[in-house]
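ok trying again, last paste got cut off:
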Amino acid sequence: MLRGKSLLEPMDLTVEEMEEIFSIADDIMSDPGKYIHCADGRLMATLFYEPSTRTRFSFEAAMHRLGGSVIGFSEPNSSSASKGESISDTVRTVECYSDIIVMRHPKEGAPRVAAESCKIPVINAGDGGHQHPTQTLTDLMTIKKYKNRLDNLTIGVCGDLMFGRTVHSLIKAMSRYKNIRLKLISPKELVIPDYVRKEVLVKNGVEFEEVRRMEEVLPQLDVLYMTRVQRERFFNEDDYIRLKDTYILDTDKMKLAKDDMIIMHPLPRVNEIAKEVDRDPRAHYFHQVKIGMYVRMGLIYSLLGLEV
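nice, full thing came through this time. structure:
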């Protein structure tokens, strides 16, 4: 049972628990009307210390579609954080009003501090360049839906691999499945951190290759996971400008890819996927957004121990 648990990183859930969430999300997709009142009287608090569109709206839509309500803030200046209140005091206060907390924070580890400070479930909606577990659940369910499996895959991850929390979470999660081959595509300035390379890939015996050119590996891929170069993670604007357009997926490059390769992106995109690619039947990043809402509905349903 997942009831009462917090979700701070992908490895907090077993493969079986993730499958349980996917099963619930699948059922919600097929019969949403069955779930519209299961969270009546329940309240979710969204504490977003960092800007977000998709993740915050996805969580709020998920809770509303389950029949629950939402309170919260979308940036710290509208909360007592601007007065210097600690995370611990904020969540202990919010716990008095709500049944579950969703937190996004620019500092790695902040959601863990929150979870240790209260007795209700806390969901990490992204902490700095560290983890983004609900995006990972979304990514896994998207891959499963369009590739019919989560093993025996060659996955290309392209862009900002140093600061990309969605990338770190996805690599961690995929390391538990069999015969996964990762092609890590990035400029030398944005390669994956050593701790991911050593503690996840090497330690788990995951086959991986680090490359600079997307075209080298594109024909081999079953999944291409594109990411943007994140302006907000750079201290030097010149470095961002120099690197931001390193990889642009366009229709010419897509001619190199398999007919059944799928393209994913955690969004928002900037220039890394040309708009013309949106018309390609292999592009699934907007389907990913929709799946994300259902995954979060399944997660909330499970952590709150709801019933239909």
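cool. The longest helix spans residues 285-303. The chain has eleven helices and nine strands.
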